[in-house]
Design brief:
alpha+beta, Ubiquitin-like (UB roll), 434 Repressor (Amino-terminal Domain), two-stranded antiparallel ribbon, 8 helices, 4 strands
Length: 204
């Protein structure tokens, strides 16, 4: 049933049985959702949704759909819209700047931050790497450095820059897009491989 305007006063007319008995309700709700080519079962224990008191038909309005989307995002362990926006603002970046560094459209990033679209898992991992590592941010922000990344596989440590010297050992890894990136991590940083494993651990 198509969503009804949120400002329309209750009771609403049910599109299924035609009775004017649709009222706000709270119900347990389970559905299947497609994400990244796979189907996931999503459960919302207490879904706030208009429901017909006569036939039980649910009216999945904007608010209800947002609850379902948030439940799917939690199930997948993805960064939330608020986290993406907060991290971008903490770095002092505009949406256009961050989108350019990630190689995506500004409109796509805007939809991630408003919750209108869920980012793919590979891009979620790239976001996590970008936000957690200054070296990754520097590499993706430089067109000159970006042009060289991934052209060769380097197994040895990356030579330290003056700023990085003394902060820890260098590590090489491949981004979700296939790009080979070299980064320097201090003692308190875990390896990128471990980071990705933790992000993906226990999820289908």
């Amino acid at each position: 049933m198509p969503p009804l305007p949120a400002t329309k006063p209750f009771p609403w007319k049910c599109g299924h049985c035609r009775a004017r008995t649709v009222e706000p309700d709270v119900v347990p709700y389970t559905t299947e959702a497609e994400y990244d080519g796979r189907t996931y079962e999503v459960t919302v224990a207490e879904l706030k949704v208009p429901r017909c008191q006569s036939c039980g038909e649910l009216v999945l309005d904007t608010a209800a759909n947002r609850q379902i989307t948030e439940a799917l995002r939690r199930h997948l362990g993805l960064l939330t819209p608020a986290q993406i926006r907060r991290n971008r603002e903490t770095l002092g970046l505009t949406q256009r700047q961050l989108a350019s560094h990630l190689g995506i459209a500004e409109a796509t990033l805007s939809r991630w931050e408003t919750g209108a679209q869920i980012q793919q898992r590979a891009l979620d991992r790239l976001l996590r790497l970008y936000f957690s590592s200054a070296s990754v941010r520097a590499a993706l922000a430089s067109e000159d450095r970006l042009a060289e990344l991934g052209t060769l596989v380097r197994l040895g440590p990356e030579p330290e820059t003056e700023a990085e010297r003394g902060s820890g050992s260098a590590a090489a890894f491949t981004s979700p897009s296939g790009t080979r990136i070299f980064s320097n991590f201090g003692r308190r940083d875990s390896s990128v491989g471990s980071l990705l494993s933790r992000n993906a651990g226990g999820r289908n």
